[in-house]
Amino acid sequence: QRQLVESGGGSVQPGGSLRLSCATSGFTLEHYAIGWFRQAPGKEREGVSCITRGGVTKNYADSVKGRFTISRDNARNTVHLQMNSLKPEDTAVYSCTADWAGCARVPSVDAYWGQGTQVTVSS
Questions:
Q1: Are 119 and 67 in contact (CB under 8 A)?
Q2: pLDDT of 47-71, one tens digit each?
Q3: What is the distance between the alpha carbons of residues 70 and 58, in angstroms, rounded to a whole number?
Q4: Residue 92 bridge partners (DSSP)
């Protein structure tokens, strides 16, 4: 089974930073578009960012543009999401997806998922 593993979440104060990582030892992430989604209690899942297979095209939700940066580290088979200037509204469980079909606001039914990592931004 193809399983992703997220790491790097935690609790920070507003204005702080975290770097999330999405990794797997089961397959090569370079062959897939990698997306980050988040979901807060009582709210729908929201697309945050996505990077295409080639890594040239990077998409961001309007709410995180200028604050978050997605990148690939193909040597380590890892995708990172650098999160700066964090706000309380960013509090959610963040999950990554690997999608052969490419980047999309709605994940493909065939996309692979991780279990998620908790990000909490509060004072």
A1: no
A2: 999 999 988 899 999 999 999 999 9
A3: 7
A4: 119
pLDDT tier at 36, thresholds 50, 70, 90: very high
Q: How far apart are CA 104 and CA 58, in angstroms?
A: 12
**DSSP character string of the chain:** ---BEEE--EEE-TT--EEEEEE-SSS-GGGSEEEEEEE-TTS--EEEEEE-TTS--EEE-TTTTTTEEEEEEGGGTEEEEEE-S--GGG-EEEEEEEETT---SS--TT-EEB--EEEEE--
Q: Is the pLDDT of residue 9 over 80?
A: yes
Tokens of 65: 């543009």
Q: What is the mean pLDDT of residues 113-118?
A: 96
**Residue 1 pLDDT exceeds 80:** no
Q: How far apart are CA 83 and CA 15, in angstroms?
A: 10
